[in-house]
């Protein structure tokens, strides 16, 4: 062993030196060179840092650098995240997205262009004027449609979602709210009055029937009881004609 190589290393190093840091790593750890000024120091990590990808070999696991425009990568030729100013597309970092795609500044990726989608027109509304459907001859009716899919930045914009047109209705007078309410109140009072009248008539009828029944009972009590007529056959005694 070289005199500058030490076996009693720390930080995951299997072998190390005072000048170059880690020279080899313990199993399952990745070896990576970090530049400090003009000097490179070897370190052992459980996973590769940003801008590097890991490769496993039988004797050592190493971290290798991604491409210059790539922030994180799976391999050198397949990027998973691009640096600022580049857009990710199929593992590559591009300054401009291909035709048919658009740049998504939120995810920094090239995505498909999405066009607006709307529903069919609704039926025309009733002919109205100033929020009323009566008291006029000419008004307006409207119809609307709903947005099903909002467009992306380069997608086709949504059309107008409401239409209005002139309309003509049969002129009729509007029923006043106060008058209608008054009529309903009068009908309710009349109904209650009729019910009360019927109730009073029924009460009077029951009272009259009860009074007549009590009068008949009193008359029956005041009349004297009729005496039972004697039986003439019993009163006449037999005449003895023997003497």
Key words describing this protein structure:
243 residues, alpha+beta, four-stranded mixed β-sheet
Mind explaining what this structure looks like?
- With about 240 residues, the protein is an alpha+beta fold.
- Among the domains are: about 1-65, Hormone Receptor, Insulin-like Growth Factor Receptor 1, Chain A domain 2, CATH 2.10.220; about 120-145 and about 155-170, no CATH class.
- The protein contains two helices and 17 strands.
- It has helices at about 175-220, 230-235; strands at about 5, 15, 20-25, 30-35, 40-45, 50-55, 60-65, 70-75, 80, 85-90, 90-95, 100-105, 110, 115-120, 140-145, 145-150, 160-170.
- The strands form seven sheets. The chain has a four-stranded mixed beta sheet, with no helix packed on it. It has a three-stranded antiparallel beta sheet with strand order 1-2-3, with no helix packed on it.
- The longest helix is centred in the last third of the chain and has 46 residues, at about 175-220.
- The protein is elongated and about 145 Å long.
- The N and C termini lie far apart (about 190 Å).
- The relative contact order is 0.06.
């Amino acid at each position: 062993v070289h005199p500058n190589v030490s076996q009693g290393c720390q930080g995951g190093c299997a072998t190390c030196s005072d000048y170059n840091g880690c020279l080899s790593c313990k199993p399952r750890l990745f070896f990576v060179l970090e530049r400090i000024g003009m000097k490179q120091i070897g370190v052992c990590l459980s996973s590769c840092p940003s801008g590097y990808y890991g490769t496993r070999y039988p004797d050592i696991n190493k971290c290798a650098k991604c491409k210059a425009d790539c922030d994180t990568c799976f391999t050198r030729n397949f990027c998973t995240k691009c640096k600022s100013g580049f857009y990710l597309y199929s593992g590559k970092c591009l300054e401009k997205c291909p035709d048919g795609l658009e740049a998504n500044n939120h995810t920094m990726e090239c995505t498909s262009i999405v066009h607006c989608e709307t529903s069919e027109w609704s039926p025309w509304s009733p002919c109205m004027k100033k929020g009323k459907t009566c008291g006029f001859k000419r008004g307006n009716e409207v119809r609307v449609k709903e947005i099903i899919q909002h467009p992306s930045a380069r997608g086709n914009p949504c059309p107008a979602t409401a239409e209005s047109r002139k309309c003509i209705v049969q002129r009729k007078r509007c029923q006043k709210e106060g008058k209608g309410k008054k009529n309903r109140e009068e009908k309710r009072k009349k109904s209650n009055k009729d019910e009360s009248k019927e109730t009073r008539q029924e009460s009077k009828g029951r009272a009259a029937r009860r009074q007549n029944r009590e009068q008949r009972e009193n008359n029956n009590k005041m009349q004297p009881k009729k005496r039972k007529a004697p039986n003439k056959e019993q009163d006449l005694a037999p005449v003895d004609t023997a003497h």
